[in-house]
Design brief:
- The structure holds 3 protein chains of 3 kinds.
- Chain A is built from 6 helices and 6 strands, in the order βαβββαββαααα.
- Chain A has helices spanning about 15-30, 75-80, 115-120, 125-140, 145-155, 165-175; strands spanning about 1-10, 30-35, 45-55, 65-70, 85-95, 110.
- Chain A has a single domain (about 1-175), classed as Pyruvate-ferredoxin oxidoreductase, PFOR, domain III (Pyruvate-ferredoxin Oxidoreductase, domain 3, 3-Layer(aba) Sandwich).
- Chain B has 2 domains: about 5-195 and about 230-240, 3-Layer(aba) Sandwich (Rossmann fold), CATH 3.40.50; about 245-355, Rossmann fold, CATH 3.40.50.
- In chain B, α1 (about 10-20) runs parallel beside α6.
- Chain C has one domain (about 25-240): Rossmann fold (3-Layer(aba) Sandwich).
- In chain C, about 55% of the residues are buried.
C-alpha cells in the first residue's frame, strides 16, 4: 500500500494542518509517512500546499508526480492541480469556496461545502476539520480514533473550549451523510 | 523508543541538544528559522545558552569562542549565511577548535531563492576560506539520518579538533518525517571540560600550564609544520570518515550518483526505470569530504554511464569524474535555482544519456 | 633584603615586541596587575585582536585566544556563555574595533555582555604599516592619506566612547591616557573599576586608552606623547562617560 496525497489551499485555511494530522495518525498506526509543505514568504493568503505520502514500506521520495487523493480548499488550487490526480483517483473539493466542478470525467470528485457547514456549527475556522471528516469517510486512510486522539491534544488547555465544535465538525460527514459526488 | 513526527529543522535542533550542545548561536535566514526559534526556548530548558547573533559573522565567531573555551557549540544557517561564515570556519579549523555547523541550503547564487538547492557543494567541500583547510561534510538524505549525523558530528569535531559541516537542504528542513530521537547527553561541566579538553582556554587554574588558541604563525617553516600537522589529521579523516550507501548497483547499466534530496528522487527514478526494464543503481555519498571514492569500486561490469544528479549546474560531478577515473563516461542531470525535478524528468534524461553513450 | 618592587606575575618574563614609545606594554601591565591584585589571573580568559597586539598572548600570563579581525566581542560573548564565573576581556586596537569590528562591539554593548573591552586608540593601523584608521585625526598623515586625512574624503574621526555610551546596557565607559605616570595610575584605577563592575555582573564595560604609535606617526617617543596629550586628547576628551551608581 502506498497512498500519495496532495492538499492545496490558501494560507490560514488549515490545509497544511489536516495533511499533518493524517500523516501523524498514519505514523501512530505504524505506517511510513512523509509530510512536505510548500514554503514561501507569505504567511497568510498565499498558497499553502502539502504533499503527504503514506506507505507500508520506507518512502523513497517525499515528492510526488501524481496524487491518489487531491484535496482543494479554494478555486486556484482546483484549476492548478486537477491534472495531477491519477485516473480513478479521488478529488475532494471545498464547494463553499469553489464554484466550479471538476473538468475530468476519469476521476471521482466529491464536493464538501466545508466552510458553510463549519459556519453552521459555529466557526468557519473548522472548515478544514469538516473536510478531514469527509476525507476519512471517503478513504478510510486512517482510523477516526487516531485523529480524535490528536484533536484532544491540539485542543487542550486554553484551547479546550474549541474541542466540542471541532469534534462536531469532524463527525459531520464521517458519521453523517456522504457529501455529494 | 517511539517515533515522533517532527519538522526537520526542529528535529535537527533537538538532535544537537541531545548531543550535549551547550551553546547555539544563530541569525535568522530562511529556510532554517525554526532552528534558532526552537533553540531559543528548548536549549535553555536543557541548561544551554542561546544568543541571537547580530550576523552570521558574529554567530560563527561566538561558536569559536564558546568551543575554544570548552563548550559544545552549534550553529546553523542557509547558503548566503554560510558564505559569511566561511572566514570563521577556516580560522576555527586553523585554531583546531571543534564546532558543528548545519547548512540548510537554498538556491543561489547571490541572495538567490529560498527553495532547496545543492549549489553549495563547492562552498562546503572546497570552502571560501583561505589556506589549506579541510572540513568534513556530511549530507543526509532524510530527517532521521540528519538527526543521527548531527548527534555524532560533535564527537567527530572534538576528536579531530576541527569544524564539521552538515549539509541538508530546505526541503529536509521544512518537511516532516517520523524520527527516533537519540538519548540526551549531559552538558559537560567544568571538570569534564578540563578532563576531555585539556587544550581549552578555561583559565590557568583549571589546567596545567597556560593555554593559547591561535593561528598566527609568522615563520613560514613553523606555519608549514602546523599545516602538515592538520593534514595528518585530514589523512586520518580520509581513512575513517568516509560514509556512503549504495543500492541496486548489481547489474545496473545506469549508475546515479546523488546526495541529499536528489538521492531520494533518484531512488524513485530507479523504480520507474525498472518498470521500463532498465536496470539503474545509486551511489549516495554521505560524506562529501572525504568523498567516497571506494564506493565506485562496487560498480558492476554492466555499467554504461555514471550520472551525477545535482540541484546545481554540476559541482559534485568533478569529484565523480575523479572517482570514476576514466572507467565510465560521466554525465550530468541538473536543475538549479531551487527547481526540484520530478523523478519522471530524471528518468527521461537518464535514458537519453544511456542512448547517447551507447551511440544510439 | 626587603623587596620593594617586583613585576606582576601577569606578565611573562619576556621582552615585548612593541616599538619604543608604544603604550601597549603599559596597558598590558596595568591590566595584568589589576587581575593579579584580585587573585583572578588563573580565572581570566582574554581575547586578542588582529593588530600589533595579536602578540599579547605572548606576553600576558593568562589563557587567551586569537580573534578574526574585529570579531573579538563576538568571541568573548561565546566564551562568556561557557564561563559565567570567570573574568573575560577583549583587547582591541582602533582598526580592529572601530572599523572592521564596529558591528560586533556595538552589539556586545547592546546585549550588555558581561565582559570588559580594553580599546587601544592610537589613531592609526599599526601592524599593517600606518594606514588611516576611522580614528585618524583630520590633517593627520597616514599611508592611505599621505597629505593628511580630509573630511571630504573620509569623514570625521569616530569617537567610540561617545558612541558606546549611548547604548543603555554599556554601563561603564571611560577614556584614559597613558602619557605620564600620574595618568597611568589613574588608568589603572579605571581598569580596576571596570573589572569590579564586570565581576558584579552589571553589564558591558569599556575602557579606551589614548595611546601612541611613534613609528607610524613618524615622531620620536617624546614627540608622540606630546601629540597624544594635545591633538588626540583635544578631539578625544579624557573622562568618564558613564558609570553605575556607587562606582
Amino acid at each position: 500500500m502506498k497512498l500519495k496525497m496532495f492538499f492545496a489551499g490558501s494560507g490560514g485555511q488549515g490545509t497544511l494542518a489536516i495533511g499533518q494530522m493524517i500523516a501523524k495518525a498514519a505514523m501512530d498506526e505504524g505506517k511510513e509517512v512523509t509530510w512536505l509543505p510548500s514554503y514561501g514568504p507569505e504567511m497568510r493568503g498565499g498558497t499553502a500546499n502539502c504533499t503527504v505520502v503514506v506507505s507500508d514500506k520506507p518512502i523513497a521520495c517525499p515528492l510526488i508526480n501524481e496524487a491518489d487523493l487531491l484535496v482543494v480548499m479554494n478555486l486556484p488550487s482546483l484549476l492548478k492541480f486537477e491534472p495531477m490526480v491519477v485516473p480513478e483517483g479521488l478529488l475532494m473539493v471545498n464547494s463553499s469556496l469553489v464554484p466550479e466542478k471538476a473538468k475530468r470525467s476519469d476521476i471521482r470528485a466529491v464536493y464538501v461545502p466545508a466552510d458553510e457547514k463549519a459556519r453552521e456549527l459555529g466557526s468557519g475556522k473548522a472548515a478544514n476539520i469538516v473536510m478531514l471528516g469527509a476525507i476519512l469517510k471517503e478513504t478510510g486512510i486512517v482510523s477516526p480514533e487516531s485523529i480524535r486522539a490528536q484533536m484532544k491534544k491540539m485542543f487542550s488547555g486554553h484551547k479546550a473550549k474549541f474541542l466540542p465544535m471541532n469534534e462536531a465538525a469532524f463527525r459531520l460527514y464521517l458519521e453523517g451523510d456522504s457529501a455529494p459526488s | 523508543m517511539s517515533k515522533v513526527l517532527m519538522k526537520g529543522n526542529e528535529a535537527f535542533a533537538e538532535a544537537a541538544i541531545r548531543a550535549g550542545c551547550s551553546c547555539y548561536f544563530g541569525y535568522p535566514i530562511t529556510p532554517q528559522n525554526e532552528i534558532p526559534e526552537y533553540m531559543s526556548h528548548e536549549l535553555a530548558k536543557a541548561g544551554g545558552k542561546f544568543i541571537q547573533a547580530e550576523s552570521e559573522l558574529a554567530a560563527v565567531n561566538m561558536a569559536y569562542g564558546a568551543a575554544a573555551s570548552g563548550g559544545r557549540a552549534f550553529i546553523s544557517t542557509s547558503s548566503p549565511g554560510l558564505a559569511l561564515m566561511q572566514e570563521g570556519l577556516g580560522f576555527t579549523a586553523s585554531c583546531e577548535v571543534p564546532i558543528v555547523a548545519l547548512n540548510v541550503s537554498r538556491g543561489g547564487p547571490g541572495v538567490g531563492g529560498i527553495q532547496p538547492g545543492q549549489a553549495d557543494y563547492f562552498q562546503v567541500t572546497r570552502g571560501g576560506y583561505n589556506g589549506d583547510v579541510r572540513i568534513p561534510v556530511f549530507a543526509p538524505s532524510g530527517i532521521q539520518e540528519c538527526v543521527d549525523l548531527i548527534y555524532s558530528a560533535f564527537d567527530i569535531a572534538e576528536e579531530y579538533r576541527n569544524p564539521v559541516v552538515i549539509f541538508a537542504d530546505g526541503m529536509m528542513g521544512q518537511m516532516m518525517e517520523p524520527v527516533e530521537l537519540p538519548p540526551k547527553k549531559p552538558i559537560a561541566d567544568d571538570a569534564e571540560i578540563a578532563r576531555t579538553k585539556p587544550w581549552a582556554i578555561t583559565g590557568t587554574d583549571a589546567h596545567e600550564g597556560r593555554n593559547v588558541v591561535f593561528s598566527l604563525r609568522l615563520q613560514p617553516d613553523v606555519l608549514e609544520a602546523h599545516v602538515e600537522h592538520m593534514f595528518e589529521k585530514y589523512a586520518r579523516a580520509e581513512r575513517e570518515l568516509v560514509r556512503y550507501s549504495t543500492s541496486n548497483l548489481e547489474g545496473a547499466e545506469i549508475v546515479f550518483v546523488a546526495f541529499g534530496t536528489m538521492s531520494r528522487l533518484c531512488a524513485e527514478a530507479i523504480e520507474l526505470l525498472a518498470e521500463k526494464g532498465v536496470k539503474a543503481g545509486l551511489i549516495r555519498p554521505i560524506s562529501l569530504w572525504p568523498f567516497p571514492d571506494a564506493a565506485f569500486d562496487e560498480i558492476g561490469p554492466e555499467a554504461k554511464v555514471l550520472i551525477s544528479t545535482e540541484l546545481s549546474m554540476g559541482q559534485m560531478i568533478q569529484d565523480v569524474k575523479n572517482a570514476a577515473a576514466g572507467r565510465w563516461p560521466v554525465r550530468l542531470i541538473s536543475r538549479t535555482g531551487g527547481v526540484v525535478p520530478s523523478s519522471l524528468e530524471i528518468v527521461d534524461r537518464a535514458l537519453k544519456h544511456l542512448q547517447e553513450v551507447q551511440g544510439k | 633584603m626587603k623587596t620593594v618592587f617586583q613585576p606582576t606575575k601577569g606578565m611573562l618574563p619576556v621582552d615585548t615586541s612593541y616599538c619604543p614609545g608604544c603604550a601597549h606594554g603599559i596597558a598590558h601591565r596595568i591590566i595584568m596587575e589589576c587581575l593579579e591584585e584580585r587573585g583572578m589571573l588563573g580565572k581570566t580568559i582574554g581575547v586578542v585582536p588582529i593588530g600589533c597586539s595579536i602578540n599579547a598572548h605572548n606576553f600576558m600570563n593568562i589563557d587567551m585566544c586569537e580573534s578574526t579581525h574585529g570579531r573579538a566581542p563576538a568571541i568573548a560573548s561565546g566564551i562568556r556563555r561557557v564561563h559565567p564565573d570567570k573574568i573575560v576581556f577583549t583587547y582591541q586596537g582602533d582598526g580592529d574595533l572601530a572599523s572592521i569590528g564596529a558591528g560586533e562591539i556595538v552589539h556586545a554593548a547592546h546585549r550588555g555582555e558581561k565582559f570588559t573591552t580594553f580599546f587601544i586608540n592610537n589613531a592609526i593601523y599599526g601592524m599593517t604599516g600606518g594606514q588611516m584608521a576611522p580614528t585618524t585625526l583630520i590633517g593627520q598623515r597616514a599611508t592611505t592619506c599621505v597629505d593628511g586625512r580630509t573630511v571630504e574624503q573620509a569623514g570625521l574621526p569616530l569617537r567610540m566612547c561617545e558612541l558606546i555610551s549611548t547604548i543603555d546596557c554599556a554601563v561603564f565607559v571611560e577614556r584614559v591616557m597613558l602619557n605620564n605616570p600620574a595618568n597611568v595610575r589613574k588608568a589603572k584605577k579605571v581598569v580596576s573599576t571596570a573589572l569590579d563592575i564586570q565581576q558584579a555582573g552589571l553589564g558591558f564595560t569599556f575602557v579606551e586608552f589614548l595611546s601612541t604609535c611613534p613609528t607610524n606617526w613618524g615622531l620620536s617617543p617624546t614627540e608622540a606623547i606630546h601629540w597624544c596629550e594635545t591633538a588626540m586628547a583635544d578631539y578625544y576628551p579624557v573622562k568618564n562617560f558613564k558609570k553605575p551608581e556607587g562606582y
